[in-house]
Amino acid sequence: MANRVRWPRRSLIGAGLAMPFLLRARRADAAAPAWIVPDLLAPAQKEGGLTVYSSTNEQEGLPLWNLFEAATGIKVTYVRAADASLLGRIGIEARTGQPSWDLLNTPTINQTPPQFLAPFDPPEAAAIIPEARDPGKRWFGCYGNYNAPAYNTKLVDAATLPKSYEGFLDHPEWAGKLAIESTDKEWFYAILQSRGEAAGRKLLQDIVAHLRPVIIDGHLALARAVSAGEYPVAINDYAMLTDNMRMAGGPTDFWALDPVALFFGAVGVNAHAPHPNAARLGANFMLSHEAQTMAAKTGRLPTRPDVASEPADAIARLTAVRTIAVNLDTEQARRWQKMFRDIIQAQ
Fold first, then answer.
1. Residues 207 and 316 in one domain
2. 255 and 277 both lie in a single domain
3. What confidence tens digit (pLDDT) does each residue in 154-170 have?
4. Long-range CB pairs of 304-308, under 8 A, 24+ apart, other chains included
5. SS3 category, 316
6. Omega cis (within 30) before 259
7. Which pTM does this prediction carry?
């Protein structure tokens, strides 16, 4: 069962005062946030709430939704669980005809059956990069998961880092010490797309045969292990996690190699949302400058070019080489994950 968190409400609401009073209580000269759509706000308030399903941890997610609740007076129920658990729960609700969620925020949203997501066109989507927009308008990227190798700066001299993935083969001293995460199908897909399937498979088979990478479960666990010096190099990880370790004082950094695989933590609206107007307003909020600026402070890499990443040069470094956006549906994800495991577990 997912962890259901009842979002703490502001004192005016908690005292039982009407929602319109809260809105009138703002200073008269205070402009409404740009992401508030007037045609959605009034009907959304009448719906009485918003239920968000998300794989983002509560430490990041709850303060973000506090901004939404404070600006709109709409109570938010935040349900946090792992991606697979959320998709399973959504599937059960669909089969029983009892949907409870309004908004889904997860990096695996592209693997959600399309009929579960409502097409919509939030105004704030015009400000995000084109790759972060689903052609069917069923989801929109709130942050980017950029894939890049990472290293421990105390154990590896930056001047010796490989200039390509083929260059890993020139480092026999990393044999048995190179690490990789067990689910990196998006990175695997990008490697094969960039080099052709036959050449890409040959490259990865050679890396496995000669360097015997250690398989780690969990990208955060991998970032921590490299930062702690358990492994000198990760052949791939999420750059934002590497940067989180670095900003916390860890001796670690990423470097960009061609290609950088990119996929998105995205937001989508339930096609049968109990609170459809609040859901659309919430989705528009998540794409806003205000929301992405807050998310960037926790290390998320924004999809809006007008929001600075932290550190400020992160996206520029990652996009200095070819970037391949990867959006695999459920069947594609299974196929590429199987191919990836067949190769990395063949050692």
1. yes
2. no
3. 999 999 999 999 999 99
4. 304/127, 304/128, 304/129, 305/127, 305/129, 306/127
5. helix
6. yes
7. 0.87
